[in-house]
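User: Sequence recovery, please. Input:
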């Protein structure tokens, strides 16, 4: 089948979080199953010039009654996947992907409307329509909206289905209704069954309503987002599409995240020979500024976007008590000023134990995975989460709140079986008790080594999940060619 991914970020071209890891890896896994896969992305300022093959084709985007002009650059073929970049300096040649100084770019609606429209125009240039266009998050959610409105009678797209994957329902693309003409959304769609959401326009809702099928990135999260606690106001819409909603767990790319081959860490190691891990621990503590590192203290690693989702307010509430223990915390992240300041202030208060780097630094992210003993993710909600999965491969034991993908991927250690420590209630007391259990187990060398081995044996490579996606694409394709879209709703 021909599958086209439309997404706002992907490694190695651009990245702010796990979406980029998924869009970088899943197409590869699908291509290795024999599918024809293309990826369509914006070209941002951070996209390295070397990534692009010289020469570009121009593209005219019909938007808001006028035209926008862009060019399409081929970024080559790697592992059987062809990538294309939309170059439109007016919208994408900026310092960051979505926001500056903690504020969303004011023209985000137009930027990603133009991107979504460009995707449909670009795909139409090919002689072969795709079986499925696979869209991700609010930035490409207008693809199905346009497809089922402006392009509804276009014979080229007659047999094309859209799969829409929600990576994070906390980011919906909410805009005032006045922008509708600007982004070519017909006023008739401003209704509860369309894109209307409490008086605003909600791009993510458009993706959910207009796609043939909706998926998210773990089974648990697929259940959670249908509840008031986790649905961010879209639980009702999701419940109404429950028979076209599925959770497929993310895989990880062990070519990038593997302590046996990782070139970004100071020493490699394997489950059979763990000596390199101690060297990684020492080097990490030295790099983070610990004077005469004490290696038999546990190191708790954190690599994260510093945002409310990730549950760091719990750490703030237990920090003083936690710092009475013999341990180190090593944290790397950037994000909202409130959380950056929290980490910086803890580092100032406990300079020998709480070691913080406010930055985006892929090399250090790998070094923390390798050098830490535990990896902490106390998330309020977590659609999948990738770092806990990377950690396991590095023999770094995850300590997580049991929510979403964290619940699906980390099994509690019972002395024999299991891969980590979890707490369910979102409370500082529960977090502290969980960390104390982990620290007590760390002191039992035999148990800890068993636990590390369990973690390193886990296999979350993409093969299985890629097969699930391929089956889903196949079902969608068959439903369409039999003449009835499985996700058809009354008004399209
Ligand atoms: P999310 O997508 O919600 O941010 P995930 O756990 O799915 O969470 O993925 C986060 C990804 O982003 C991981 O690959 C992680 O290593 C990376 N990452 C997050 N913050 C940083 C940072 N400050 N420096 C380097 N990598 C980071
Ligand atoms: C989102 C989620 C994260 C998930 C990632 C990739 O950013 O917050 O949990 O792993 O997308 O699907």
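Assistant: Recovered sequence (492 residues):
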């Amino acid at each position: 089948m021909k599958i086209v991914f439309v997404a706002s970020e992907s490694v190695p071209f651009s990245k702010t979080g796990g979406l980029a890891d998924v869009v970088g890896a899943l197409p590869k896994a699908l291509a290795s199953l024999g599918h024809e896969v293309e990826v369509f992305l914006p070209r941002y300022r951070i996209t390295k010039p070397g990534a692009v093959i010289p020469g570009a084709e121009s593209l005219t985007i019909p938007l808001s009654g006028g035209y926008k002009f862009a060019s399409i650059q081929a970024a080559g073929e790697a592992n059987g996947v062809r990538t294309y970049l939309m170059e439109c300096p007016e919208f994408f040649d900026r310092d960051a992907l979505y926001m500056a100084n903690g504020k969303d770019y004011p023209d985000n609606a137009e930027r990603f409307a133009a991107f979504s429209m460009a995707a449909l125009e670009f795909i139409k240039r090919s002689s072969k329509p795709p079986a499925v266009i696979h869209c991700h998050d609010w930035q490409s959610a207008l693809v199905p909206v346009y497809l089922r409105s402006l392009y509804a009678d276009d014979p080229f797209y007659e047999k094309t289905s859209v799969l829409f994957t929600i990576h994070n329902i906390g980011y919906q693309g909410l805009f005032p209704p006045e922008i509708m003409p600007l982004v070519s959304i017909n006023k008739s769609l401003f209704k509860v069954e369309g894109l209307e959401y409490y008086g605003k326009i909600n791009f993510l809702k458009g993706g959910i309503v207009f796609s043939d099928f909706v998926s998210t990135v773990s089974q648990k999260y697929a259940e959670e987002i249908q509840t008031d606690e986790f649905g961010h106001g879209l639980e009702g819409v999701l419940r109404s599409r429950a028979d076209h909603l599925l959770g497929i767990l993310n895989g990880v790319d062990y070519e990038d995240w593997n302590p046996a081959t990782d070139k970004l860490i100071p020493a490699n190691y394997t489950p059979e020979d763990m000596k390199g891990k101690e060297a990684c621990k020492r080097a990490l503590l030295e790099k983070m500024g610990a004077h005469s590192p004490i290696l038999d203290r546990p190191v708790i690693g954190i690599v994260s976007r510093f945002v409310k989702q990730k549950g760091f307010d719990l750490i703030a509430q237990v920090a003083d008590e936690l710092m009475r223990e013999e341990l180190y915390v090593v944290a790397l992240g950037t994000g909202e000023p409130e959380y950056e300041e929290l980490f910086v202030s803890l580092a100032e208060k406990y300079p020998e134990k709480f070691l913080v780097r406010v930055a985006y630094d892929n090399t250090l992210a790998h070094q923390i995975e390798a050098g830490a003993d535990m990896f902490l993710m106390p998330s309020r909600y977590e659609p999948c989460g990738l770092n806990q999965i990377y950690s396991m491969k590095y023999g770094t034991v995850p300590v997580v709140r049991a929510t979403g993908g964290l619940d699906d991927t980390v099994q509690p250690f019972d002395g024999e079986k299991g891969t980590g420590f979890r707490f369910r209630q979102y409370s500082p007391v529960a977090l502290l008790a969980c960390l104390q259990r982990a620290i007590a187990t760390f002191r039992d060398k035999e148990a800890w080594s068993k636990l590390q081995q369990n973690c390193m044996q886990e296999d979350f490579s993409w093969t299985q999940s890629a097969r699930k996606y391929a089956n889903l694409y196949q079902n969608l394709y068959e439903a369409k060619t039999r003449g009835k879209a499985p996700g058809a709703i009354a008004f399209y």
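Residues 157 and 412 are 47 Å apart (CA to CA).
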